[in-house]
Amino acid sequence: MNTSIKLLIADDHILIREGLRKILSIEPHISVVGEVTNGQQAVDYCLKNPVDIVLMDINMPIMNGIEACRQIKKLNPNIGIIALTIHDQDEYLFELIKYGISGYVLKDIHPDQLIKTILGVAQGESFIPPSLTARVLAEFTRLSSGDYSEKKHLNLTEREIEVLKQVAKGQSNKAIANALYISEKTVKNHLTNIFQKIGVADRTQAALYAIKEKLVDL
């Protein structure tokens, strides 16, 4: 990784922001470019400044993190958003996945794991805590039972299935390209086709689809 990841911290608690900045300052590939105290400020910052990743609290005044996630992803789908929250609750995660979140971590996460998650998201990976995966899959299956049919699965080419399996394993585009001996541009093209065919918006939803369809094991 040759360039620094431009990261925005969105949290209404100053002690949390200061603690995060201190933790992230030890990682040379992460640069905290700004701090905001509510979701509206996060949206405004992303509109005016280059940002790679937003570390987003959920419960904030004026605009919460869920609505901020929706607006930021609509503004720029390439911005990765990691929810950092005290809430281990399904409804938050389901909403955030729907809007294209890249990661969901609890505030008691170990600093090393937080840094690893940020670096992974910057490489195109997604992260959902293992403790929540089963519940998310159950809800995802319930909500999408009418949309995710065998026919859609059969529409995928053999190469697209290979790429989808790698996505479900949390592999970045670069890692997938290396594993399948193709270019990163080809991986991106395959992902565009896969998302369209199975009716999802992002890697996290594609990974959940692959697990539901038993293309990979949990």
Oligomer: single chain
User: What form results from the Cα inertia axes?
Assistant: globular
Extract low-pLDDT stretches: 146-151
CATH superfamily descriptor of the largest domain = Response regulator
How many strand units?
5
Strand count, sense and closure of the main sheet? Answer: 5 strands, parallel
Rounded mean pLDDT score: 84
Span of the ends, CA to CA: 29 Å
State the name of the first-level CATH class of the largest domain: Alpha Beta
Structural class, by secondary structure, is alpha/beta
Number of domains: 2
> Strand arrangement, largest sheet?
2-1-3-4-5
- Beta-strand proportion: 5-15%
Give me the Rg, rounded: 17 Å
From the 3D coordinates, which CATH architecture of the largest domain would you assign? 3-Layer(aba) Sandwich
CATH topology of the largest domain: Rossmann fold
Order of helices and strands: EHEHEHEHEHHHHHHH
Helix content: 40-55%
| Number of helices, counting only DSSP H or I runs of 4 residues or more | 11
Provide a descriptive summary of the structure in words.
This protein starts with a strand and ends in a 6-residue tail after the last helix. The chain has a five-stranded parallel beta sheet, sandwiched between helices. It folds into two domains: 5-127, Response regulator (Rossmann fold, 3-Layer(aba) Sandwich), CATH 3.40.50; 136-212, 3-Layer(aba) Sandwich (Rossmann fold), CATH 3.40.50. The chain is globular and about 50 Å long. The protein has helices at residues 14-24, 39-48, 65-75, 90-98, 111-122, 130-144, 150-154, 158-168, 173-180, 184-198, 203-212; strands at 5-10, 30-36, 53-56, 80-85, 103-106. Helix content is 54%, strand content 12%. With 218 residues, it is of the alpha/beta class. It is built from eleven helices and five strands, in the order βαβαβαβαβααααααα. Residues 6-122 form the Response regulatory domain. This is Stage 0 sporulation protein A homolog. GO terms for molecular function: DNA binding.
